């Protein structure tokens, strides 16, 4: 649905006439806006939303500006939750191959990197992230003065396989530099998961002091407590680290409660992944000499 169609839909549902929406505008002009015959300017859109007492999110939910990305998100999620779904798998692999053979914009690079980061362990058709690709990505993001949404997603996925020194450089720049800290306040939640992935990798590497530092920094984010998934996953990592370093079984009980909660709400994929994650962390992880062998927890933010 286009934006003009959504505005017409809401106006009729709320029982407004075209004249009531913009009283100082000729109804014929508004009719052209609502029929898609005339471009809607940003200021006009703001006035229309105010007249209808609508939040922008209500309109963009049924008339998304990023429709292609929403389709990718659904496809990616479906494949992650059903690895045997051959039809959807073929569709995602075709998209991956298409991206492989073209110059990619930032959104496409983010999608390409997400596919490789998650599915290379699971599907033979998807190649691992190469050292050259990882170095190119690090060079790209470390030299940026302003981070966009897709930059944060790329960095989040890179945290799983970046060397600690490079991870620390990016974390310092994003979370501890005054300019980027203020920028992050206007961003969506994607950047929070950078710290979760960095913490997970440090735990696998038995770098517990660094993991503790990341957790402390992560607790300073989302001060308005808007992101429940982020905070509960952070608590899981803290309990895991506490169990490893302190040894008190109460921390393992809390992890089991978290896994049961995920199963109760139907998020069985993440519950199973975390169960496997815990078993491997508590086993001898020295066999995981290559970071790309570290298990990947599925995050529903792409």
Summary keywords:
mainly alpha, 67% helix, 0% strand, 302 residues, single chain, 17 helices
If you had to describe this structure to a student in words, what would you say it looks like?
This is HTH cro/C1-type domain-containing protein. InterPro entries: Cro/C1-type_HTH, Lambda_DNA-bd_dom_sf, TPR-like_helical_dom_sf, Transcription_activator_Rgg_C. Residues 7-59 form the HTH cro/C1-type domain. The two termini are 22 Å apart. The chain is globular and about 75 Å long. With 302 residues, it is mostly helical. The protein folds into two domains: 3-62, 434 Repressor (Amino-terminal Domain), CATH 1.10.260.40; 128-293. The chain has helices spanning 3-14, 18-21, 27-35, 42-52, 56-62, 67-81, 86-100, 106-119, 131-142, 149-158, 164-176, 178-184, 193-204, 208-219, 228-246, 249-264, 268-282.
Instruction: Determine the N-to-C terminus distance.
Output: 22 Å
Helix % is: 55-70%
The major beta sheet can be summarized as: none
Radius of gyration from the alpha-carbon trace, in angstroms: 23 Å
List the domain count as a whole number: 2
Structural class by secondary-structure content: mainly alpha
Categorize the overall geometry.
Answer: globular
Number of strand elements = 0
What is the element string, with H for helices and E for strands? HHHHHHHHHHHHHHHHH
Put simply, the count of helices is 17
Mean pLDDT: 86
Uncertain residue ranges: none
- Indicate the proportion of strand residues: under 5%
